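Model it.
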Amino acid sequence: MPPGRKLEAAVRAICGLNEAAMHEAAARLDQLTKPPGSLGSLETLAIRLAGITGVPVPVAPLRKAVVVMAGDHGVCEEGVSAFPQEVTPQMVLNFLGGGAAINVLARQTGAEVVCVDIGVKGELAHERLLARRVRSGTANIAQGPAMTREEAVRALETGIGVVEELCGQGYGLLATGEMGIGNTTPSAALLAVWGGLEAREVVGRGTGIDDAGLARKREAIVRAIAVNRPNADDPLDVLSKLGGLEIAGLAGVIIGAASRRCPVIVDGFISAVAAIAAAKLAPGVEPYLIASHLSEERGHGLALRELGLSPMLHLGMRLGEGTGAALVFPLLDAAGSVLREMATFDSAGVSKG
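Modeled.
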């Protein structure tokens, strides 16, 4: 398939939520043995899931996966991270070995971790790794474009392709995760352009840089925007000039999931910026997104505001990997279980108020 065709097809396939399924789910919730609306946001979530999937009452919990996209960033040359770039492939192997935080939380919630090498710098080989490398890391955005426009499209279509594979294997609920030393820098640059914000408003400490590192990071973003002059009205131009391969890959995951009526739990700052990219490229994806938590990273709240999303959890987390998203899996399972398993007033012989 020629580059761009998969992306175009996925964007065209996105449609609105199933209103009939939502009305049916809402009606059933009001028949259950509880005061109307007494389960609060859990009921709202149940109705949203019905609209996304088109299934008013799920027959079983959805099969879950956390898609962890991994890529490296040339902007690390500017001293924007507290960790060296070689940590990216090291952590990917840690994911594949089951020893990272996301592995622990995914196991606890019955989810699979699917790790994708979309742009890691250096050799990686593992039987469980999805090797989908578009290029070996991006270029330094403080000096020029991160990647070509064609590479950005390939990264987007890689994410869409991963969703096609997972849905074909029976997965029905996805969460976004990422790994890439330095990736809060391109994320902040993207948010600054799309949100019309100053660098100082969106730049955070990422993995824990000191004040000098924060100043370097802010300056790198200012230079990146000045050097590349991205066109805010052209999402692919912005993404290719300032973005990361894993950011583009996650945007593709979101677009692909929405095209298949599959809910997506959005993790932290990088994932939220990827969701903005997806929304810019494919208006209509927002109803398929569930914001998991509010990260400590400075720009995350601004990114969620741009998307019109409210986080479900406030835990002071800033790890990434999909960890915050994994913690929300049980809430979605609970919402489905309420619809599926709870007795109605009639079936239980309970008098209505």
